[in-house]
Amino acid sequence: MFTAVIAKEASFLFEQDLGIDLGTATTLVFARGRGVVCSEPSVIALEQPSGRILAVGEAAKRMIGRTPASIVAATPLRGGVIADFDTAKLMLQHFIRKNRLRQFLGRTRVVVGVPSSVTEVERRAVVDAALQAGCKEAYLIEEPLAAGIGAGLPVDQPIGSMVVDIGGGTTDIAILSLGGIVTSLSIRVAGNAMDEAIQVYLRKQHNILVGERTAEAIKIAIGSALPGENLSTSVAGLDMSTRLPRCLELTSEEIARAIAEPVSQITSAARTVIERCPPELLCDIYDQGVTLTGGGSLLRNMATLLQRETGLPSRVADNPVECVAAGTGRALDQMKIMQHLVKRGTRR
Question: Is residue 333 domain-shared with residue 286, that is, in the same domain?
Answer without folding.
Answer: no
